[in-house]
Amino acid sequence: MATKAAAAKATAKSGPPASNGRPSVRLTKLFIDNEWCDPADGGSFETCNPATGETIATVAAAGPGDVDRAVKAARRALESGPWSTMDAADRGRLMFKLADLVEQNADELASLESLNCGKTIADSKGDLQGVCNTLRYYAGWADKVEGRTIPVRGNFLSYTLRQPVGVIGQIIPWNFPLLMLAWKWGPALACGNAVVMKPAEQTPLTALRMAELAREAGFPAGVINILNGMGETTGAAIVNHPDVDKIAFTGHVDTAKIIQKAAADTLKRTTFELGGKSPNVIFADADMDAAVAGAFHAIYFHGGQCCTAGSRLFVESRIHEEFVERLAEKAKGRVIGDPLDARTEQGPQVSQEQLDKILHYVDLGEKQGARLITGGERVGQKGFFVQPTIFDNVTDEMAIARDEIFGPVVSVLPFKSAEEVIERANRTYYGLAAAVWTKDIDKAHLYARKVRAGTVWVNCYHVVDATTPFGGFKMSGQGRENGEAALEHYTELKTVTVKLGG
Ligand code: ADP
User: Fold this and answer.
1) Would you state the pLDDT for residue 20?
2) Cα(231) to centroid of ligand 1, in Å?
3) What does 231-242 look like in DSSP terms, one character per residue?
4) What's the first-to-final CA gap in the chain, in angstroms?
């Protein structure tokens, strides 16, 4: 991180879109209490374009004092601002308005996302649709979060209220910056909480634009605060702040362990959405064309930078050779390049660190005896591009079959029977997602029942919707996002008991 002096450079500049079609970067400051602020005790850092490695902007980073300012603003919003007395339906109305503004500015948001995160423009546009769907889905929930009346013993009336948890610290990753923001804002705002969010240090830009749109939509001061910065400083200051009631985190399992330990000091509520090593199982009776296309999409969507990536590809021995051949054919034809070019199918990995990590695992795969079928190399010398990679004849013990690589590297593991593959699919400490490809309804449901994962896809992959609960078994997380399930993590349940007369 750079010094305070450099923070002076982190300004909210405004200007026309750049003439080369790339989005201009206007917003780089902290967003606290509906104002753009310079850090009081933070600093700044540079954010880069992963397609070139070049700096895009210098962005303000929040220190503990800035975190405290944001938390105080959020608390004020909850206790005395218009948010505290607003009708639930009006909260929903603001969220619908925000979704409309996102839709109106979707092209700009998508290109800024692609510039900073490296995802293809088509994928960014898909994410923007998901953002609107999520905001609208939870906008609809705002006035439907209800308590119950309870037939209590004695002459009493007992009922429950569902009230906001309070100030929510939300810490998100770089792979889906806008979508993860929406997944976190949606249920939090619908339930009347106030948010202090830290985007990932690799992708700080689009959240700032979302904050600007939220203000335009009419969200009162303090309800939404955006603090960029490093995890170990800004993120830790949010986690450690005594007046933050809950942490909602998406990221690495090792970071979640640190956060859970730190949150224990103030007994904060926590929800976690973490990594995965998802088993994607192809039976010999599957529709071959659909399964090859599905396995391809499962691993190579967003260059494998997806916590649900189908990185363990179990293929029934009878079709294994043909399947790998066909998958490799497709992998070799993948168009890699500038994510802002509409023809590009795979952009860069997000950072040098991720590129190095992926190449390290390729090396390990070869050393441990897996067969490299295709890929395994960096593409070009500029930016962080890597070839779609297939390892065959992988065994369950190899590092490439056990660890989350977060890149376009698939491990093919042949199998012989349903019982065998279910046992092997579960041989991991992760449990985020799983898929099965078969025309046999019994096999499909057996697998869906037995596999220990929060999401199971049958004859499809990466189908995630605002309406369906999403989260992990085992070390892939705690709690659920999306759907009605998320609401319980953003409300406290209060029992009110009234002594009745007579
Ligand atoms: P990844 O490996 O995907 O970068 P991380 O878990 O490191 O995953 O990052 C996800 C988010 O967690 C980012 O916003 C990052 O800044 C934040 N983070 C990292 N370390 C900490 C920490 N010690 N406390 C709080 N947040 C952190």
Assistant:
1) 54
2) 5
3) IIIIIHHHHH-T
4) 68
Residue type, 206: T
Quote the CA–CA distance of 339 and 50 in Å, as a whole number.
10
Which residues carry out catalysis?
Answer: 273, 307
What's the pLDDT score for residue 18?
Answer: 44
Q: Is the CB of 201 under 6 A from ligand 1?
A: yes
Question: For a pocket test of ligand 1, which of 184, 246, 255, 261 has the largest count of ligand atoms closer than 8 A to its C-beta?
Answer: 255
Residue 174 in tokens: 């770089």
How far apart are the CA of 251 and the centre of ligand 1, in A? 6
Beta bridge partners of 224: 195
Structure tokens belonging to residue 249: 């985190």
Question: How far apart are the C-alpha atoms of 316 and 283, rounded to whole Å?
Answer: 5
Query: Tens of pLDDT along 368-389?
Result: 999 999 999 999 999 999 999 9
Task: Locate the ligand 1 atom nearest the alpha carbon of residue 199 and give its number.
Answer: 14
Residue 273 Cβ contacting ligand 1 at under 6 Å: no
> pLDDT category, 23, cuts 50, 70, 90?
confident
d(CA 17, CA 23): 5
Which residues is 316 bridged to in the sheet? 415
Q: How many other CB atoms sit within 10 Å of the CB of residue 305? A: 24
Global pTM reads 0.96
**E-strand stretches of 50-175:** 54-61, 149-150, 156-164, 167-171
Instruction: Please give, one letter per residue, the 3-state secondary structure of 299-358.
Output: HHHHHHCCCCCCCEEEEEHHHHHHHHHHHHHHHHCCCECCCCCCCCCECCCCCHHHHHHH
Q: Verify whether ligand 1 is closer than 6 Å to residue 236 (CB atom).
A: yes
354 lines ligand 1 (CB under 6 A): no
